[in-house]
Design goal:
Helix content: over 70%
GO cellular component, one term: plasma membrane
Main location: membrane
Order of helices and strands: HHHHHHHHHHHHHHHHHHHH
Keywords: Cell membrane, Membrane, Transmembrane, Transmembrane helix
Number of domains: 2
Largest sheet: none
InterPro entries: Poly_Biosynth_Transport (IPR050833)
Strand content: under 5%
Radius of gyration: 23 Å
Mean pLDDT: 83
Organism: Faecalibacterium prausnitzii
Number of strands: 0
Low-confidence stretches: 495-499
Length: about 500
Amino acid sequence: MSNENQKSSDKYSKLAGNTLIFAISSFSSKLLTLIVQPFLTYAMAEISDLGLAKILSQYANLLIPFVSMGMSNAIIRFGLDKGNSEKQVFTNGLLTILAGFGLLVIFWPVVQFLPDMAQYGMLIYLYILMSCLRTLCTQFVRSRQWNKLVAIDGILCTFATLMFYVLYLVGFQLGANGYLLAIISGDLVSVLFLCLTGKLWNYVELKGLNKNLWQQMLRFSLPMIPAQISFWVINASDLFFVREMCDGIDGHSGDAWSGLLSTGYFLPTILTTLGLIFYDAWQLSAVTEEEGRAQFFTKIFRTYSSVLFCCAAGIIWLCRPVMHIMKSNYYTAWHFVPFLALASTCSCFNQFLNSVYVVNKKSTHSLWTMLAGAVSNCIMNYFFIKWWGPVGATYASFLGLGVVFTLRAIDAHNMIGMSIHPARVLLNFAVLAGEALVLLAEVPLYGLWTGLITLGIILYNFAGVWAMARILLPKLLGRRGKALVKTIDSLLAPREKQA
């Protein structure tokens, strides 16, 4: 039993260690998000300029799955399989992306008829290519488990992108063009850094291509295209619905409303960043740890969800005062934050549960669940915006992602026997929705009530949060961390015995 306990402890410790490494990388990205969004509200003279910039980047995000053919998921899944050649995996991914981009170039006569594409097409194409290449390089490096290199790259890319924002938006005042150029330039810096430090050219092997492996990778990745498109629909269609349906409401143009909505993502993005930090480490453990998988997934999800529920409650509670750091005419974007925080929590859960499909190589399930969410999201967007105005788009996002979460939770239980403890999850979401409605209704003393609800959420989820903290603290603080864990455990022990 001691050996089994040691193995169990090792896999949780390994997951915690990888999470810390990726946190170093992603913390800088989170910091960039916190700095850049307020910076953009000051650097772009009009709200509509920011709205246009976000719309253009979403055009690129729509086309990226077609160019990459979903290969980013296959790179890490097949790269982690010990029986596969790293050179063949990387070469297959690179050739797939280049072929996809070639097709995009050929279809320019059609693509140019998309709104705004004729004017900004060149930049959008560069955005797509650099994004695909950066994803290829970072996913391959992760599959090699060069985690420290990933962390350094994240910091470098973040700093470079921030500097390019300053250069293009403040120095040259290029507006939407500058926004796209900054992201393109940051991705280029990342690709060059990873290629040079990882010597990735050594993994390009054009002779003796393994066509069978390529076909396996494509069978796995191609269903990811409509799945990623569906994910895009849920997350980005809000901007387009608001742009087209809210023109003239309260004196704002459609682009202005989409700019406000994108600003509303400022705080919820913290949740998705936390999710990405964890998922980068989790996908390695999910694939490589095979013993006791059902219990492992169930226990980690409980801890992970506890942390996210507490963070979401805090974001809803503090969103109004924090949004004052934006330029004054952007402040009203706080109305979008509460239900976007709930939507981001669902999005993180969906990403976690997607690892079940990755482990079992059931990518078609990822497609059908996301497609169900996308269709329901579009229908709800239309009606909710009609009934409640621009803020209705946030309700649609939350419920659409909730549909995906429900379907994936059922799949996870059927495939590996994992349980999400639905009663606990539903109670948390119900309380968070109540907190959001109290804030949006601006009831008397809403700050007090939302603060008390946040405290209740934290107390209810404390055990799950502490389960993660007691693993991370010794790694962060060494002996002091271990002493702190022992002290808190001793304080909690009498309560646990009473319970």
